[in-house]
Fold this sequence. Notes:
Layout: E1 5-8, H1 13-23, E2 29-36, H2 49-62, E3 65-73, E4 85-89, H3 108-119, E5 125-127, H4 132-143
Parallel strand pairs: 1-4, 2-5
Antiparallel strand pairs: 2-3, 3-4
InterPro entries: CNOT7/CNOT8/Pop2, RNase_CAF1, RNaseH-like_sf, RNaseH_sf
Function: Ubiquitous transcription factor required for a diverse set of processes. It is a component of the CCR4 complex involved in the control of gene expression.
Subunit structure: Component of the CCR4-NOT complex, at least composed of CRR4 and CAF1 proteins.
Amino acid sequence: MERNIRYVWSNNLEEEFNLIMKIRHSHHYVALDTEFQRVIVDCPRNANEDMRYSHLDLNIANRQFTQIGLCFFDAYGNLPYSGSAWQFTFKGFNSRRYTSEIKEAIDPKRFATFLKKMVSGCELHWVTFHGLYDFGYMTQILTNSTPPGHPQ
């Protein structure tokens, strides 16, 4: 099977989410990866839970995610017919490499409306590699705020 990345910008966001909505029930495993600006404060490896959360909160509140990648597959690892992965690029991405494409970047609030539809009414299983920041940024997108206070 050909593996391809579907690049998603503002002008094809709805079309690509329509494809995702069609495959999410049969391919309900989702690999998630976020790209973001360098962290402000690195958290020590041996940090306790409170310190890790404090660093996560500080970094997410003061840095912007730039890209999100989603790859859907079924319980056997099969990829959907429509491609293997979607790469979403967001406004505020300040790399010189993409300067000409910034006008096509996605508004995170618009992305959130589609993302909320994608995750509702369907049991998705998420896969990440060291997903603390991945889920932190997804929470930020879905709630339009920084992470909530530390759970008790």
